[in-house]
Design brief:
alpha/beta, 5-stranded mixed beta barrel, two-stranded antiparallel sheet, 6 helices, 28% strand, EC 3.2.2.26, methylthioadenosine nucleosidase activity, hydrolase, Futalosine hydrolase, menaquinone biosynthesis
């Protein structure tokens, strides 16, 4: 069954497509920037496929990301152990409180499926593995970097769609994984230091490993 690969923008989708082997049983779609667009776009694609009688087997969010400096260097490939929604909760006098601690029955975390993460890690032995935090604003100062790292000490990268894609996949009962390549370091914003070509090239290089999931991702 087909694996759905979700990116935010077309340059990411094009980079993934450039690395896919001929006949790969995958579909690549760019659905927009941010967790809301990602969730809505992914859910729509999943529903349409279900309605056609050709449901997807798994969902992979792929794209570029900001890497934690000293952990995830420029051009590195990162595999998410889980997608974490940053700052979904409440600010209190004692600090930030995630929504699951407030008692609303929601969660800020979606775990990556081991059935996807294990073969990806095996196929990409140089990839870093850890938490990818979903943000709605690119971290751009030293102060905000420190606050983010303190709140999410296990993070290796930040991106803007993973949690949204993960929630849509979970709602459809499908396994989810997130693969990112590092275009910039998290910290004071300096667009001249971003390395988009290197990150896109890494996406292309990782695409065969994602395509291989089509034969190893049972529904559910």
């Amino acid at each position: 069954m087909t694996v759905l690969i979700i990116t935010a923008v077309e340059p990411e989708a094009d980079a993934v497509r450039a690395g896919l082997p001929a006949g790969a049983d995958v579909a690549v779609h760019a659905v927009g920037i941010g967790p809301a667009a990602a969730a809505a776009g992914t859910a729509r694609l999943l529903a349409l496929a279900e309605g056609r009688g050709t449901p997807y087997a798994a969902v992979v969010n792929a794209g570029i990301a900001g890497g934690v400096v000293g952990v995830a260097p420029l051009g590195a490939t990162v595999l998410g152990t889980r997608a974490v929604a940053a700052w979904l909760g409440a600010e209190t006098p004692d600090g930030f409180q995630p929504i699951e601690e407030i008692g609303f029955g929601a969660t800020t975390v979606v775990e990556a499926a081991g059935a996807l993460l294990r073969p990806l890690a095996a196929a990409l032995p140089a990839a870093l593995v850890g938490e990818i935090v979903t943000v709605t604003t690119v971290t751009g100062t030293a102060a905000s970097t420190g606050v983010l790292r303190a709140a999410y000490p296990a993070m290796v990268a930040e991106a803007m769609e993973g949690f949204g894609v993960a929630v849509a996949a979970a709602g459809a009962g499908l396994p989810f994984a997130e693969l990112r390549t590092v275009s910039n370091g998290i910290g004071p914003l300096d667009r001249s230091a971003w390395r988009l070509p290197a990150a896109f090239a890494a996406l292309t290089a990782a695409a065969p490993a994602v395509a291989a999931l089509a034969g190893a991702a049972p529904r559910g």
